[in-house]
Amino acid sequence: MSKLSRALASAIVLAVAMAAPLSAVAATDVGPGPTTRMEVTRFGSGVLELGDDLSVGVTVRNTAQTAGTLSVQLRVTDAPLRSRSALDGFIANPRSVHTHAVDTRDVDGAAAAIGARVPVTLTGRSAQLDLPPQSWGVYGVFIVLREDRVASETVTSALTWQGSKVPALNAAIVATATGTAERIVRVAAASAVPGAALALDPTALSDEDAAAMSLRREIYRLPSGNPDLASLAHSDDRTLLAWSLENSKSDTPQGLAGLPWLALTPVADRSTLRTVFDAGAAAALVVPSASGSAPRFPDGTTTSVAEVDLLTSNVRVIVPDDHLSELVASFRPNSEEAGARIVADAALTAAAGETTIVISPGEGWVLPDAGPSQSLVRLMDAPWVKPSTVAAVVGGR
Q1: pTM score, two decimals?
Q2: How far is the C-alpha of 330 from the C-alpha of 257, rounded, in Å?
């Protein structure tokens, strides 16, 4: 091989290595040439009370002709994780926190056959978990697949221990649905949980589409085409805004007539807010800007609502919790362990003093394959979470 050929080959190898997704590196700690993979098939909400065991189901799959000696281990942090940033750190790097094993299972030798899938149940008995009976806390959960004693894959999540009551948390969800009718119907299905409002563009739906959706919930309409309200507010011509609102009001399927409208805006300045409220918006919700930066509000803003002085009046603007919203939107979609991490994050949010939050997964929500999002189901089923509404949040209730 010539020097030029060798140089090109080296460059290609380097480019491929640099292109590897960071998430894959963070999610697994692999030994040299792993031949097995692990999938969590059962985890639940991760909420435990006195006397409860932690039971986790995984499936081990062999991807090569032969595999070494296999085992799966369930580990839990020695001490509680006391903040959302601490939980984030554990999820990204579980070896940065002291953990102890609560169960280890050898994998049946049948896994040596290529393509074999072997179910394994891991159980952390209440006595082994040894969690304090008089206090609550969030603990990291660490599942390790070992091949010939080398960790070939890991999965992280969390459990929420209720030795005492977790502080109460009111939670409202705003699911925004625009684009195709198929997308809107799927967003409606994914968000069909208590406390979830639906904001949709009704002009994209037929009567049949609307009939297929569950409409017994809090629903808002969006302006037709979901235009950039901030840009329209700062223009001299309000014709497009007026048309967009009138179209979403008149070109509406049966069952969706007469809906109040919700303003989605990345900018919470006086001009934008005055424009949308003068146009009859029932509420305004701040969405992340294209740069991902959050808007700035006066002192006293919470993660659920900000009060903005429009000089002639004050308005209350909904401010979603960006961290929980992002987790619901894209943290390990369709995985069994994702919900427990989100439930734990909500507990730590309550512990930090928040009493009300709004979660809005946004247009980037990676939807479940079918039915309601299990992450949302588990969150709203948590004993300390009370479903709320957009109207209650705006009204300060």
Answers
A1: 0.85
A2: 32
